[in-house]
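Incident log, structure service

09:12 report received: a user says their structure output differs between two submissions of the same chain.
09:20 pulled the input from the user's history:
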Amino acid sequence: MSDEKNNIHSLLEADDSGAAAKRGEGQKRERNLDLIMDIPLRVTVELGRTKMLVSELLNLGQGSVIELSKLAGEPMEVLVNDKLVARGEAVVVNEKFGVRLTDIISPAERVEQLK
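09:34 re-ran on a clean worker, output below:
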């Protein structure tokens, strides 16, 4: 009977030390994440693209319209440091434009972009 108690006690200690190790790993990850939280990133929301000749660019004036490659209502692309991370739609918030994210690119797709 005392052997069973010792075995159970050993299992409980091992379980506690495993939980403590997991807590330690979580705290370490949080500290590591804290190291990068203040790094500035360039976030770009792209409505569309077009190509123009220099002469066309020089002829632009106030009220000119530039036709873009995307259709109205098509999702806009959200880029972080020129890498696609999400797609979204334009919204107005407190009289300012914003983007409501509708699709987040999966980590696998983001890794694929790096190749």
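09:41 both user submissions now match this output. Likely a transient worker issue. Closing.
09:42 reviewer note: DSSP finds three helices and four strands in the chain. Residues 1-39 form one domain.
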